[in-house]
Structure formats: structure tokens, C-alpha cells
Amino acid sequence: MDKKLFEILACPLCKGDLKHERETHELICRPCGLAFPVRDDIPVMLESEARTLTTDERL
């Protein structure tokens, strides 16, 4: 994913910072407890497409 794009992205719900998890191809918002998928280097920033983080992932 393009580094410049990642720098301007924010969580669509809380507008907070996201952490890029390269191994799982996701953008993580810990305050919301959601992981947004990155498909073909395109972030899918829809709440309906996000998965809920496990308790361990939120820590």
C-alpha cells in the first residue's frame, strides 16, 4: 500500500489513527476494535466489511 495514502487515512467511525498490519493485510483501529481489509492494495473502509478484533488483538 502506498505510504502517502496510509498517512492520510483515518478510521471512518472515530477518525482515529490506523495501524497497518502487513501480515494480515488490514488496517487496525484499536479504539473501535475493528480491522479494515486491504484488497489489492486498496483499503476497504466500510464498517460492514470490517471484522471485529479479538480481545487479545485489542491489547
Would you kindly provide a written description of the structure presented here, covering whatever features stand out?
The chain is α+β, with helices and mostly antiparallel strands. It has a single domain (3-58), classed as N-terminal domain of TfIIb. 17% of the residues lie in helices and 29% in strands. It is built from two helices and five strands. It has helices at 3-8, 55-58; strands at residues 19-21, 26-29, 34-39, 42-43, 51-52. Strands 1, 2, 3, 4 and 5 form a five-stranded antiparallel β-sheet that branches. A hairpin with a 4-residue loop joins β2 (26-29) and β3. The longest helix has 6 residues, at 3-8. The chain is globular. The relative contact order is 0.21. The mean pLDDT is 94.
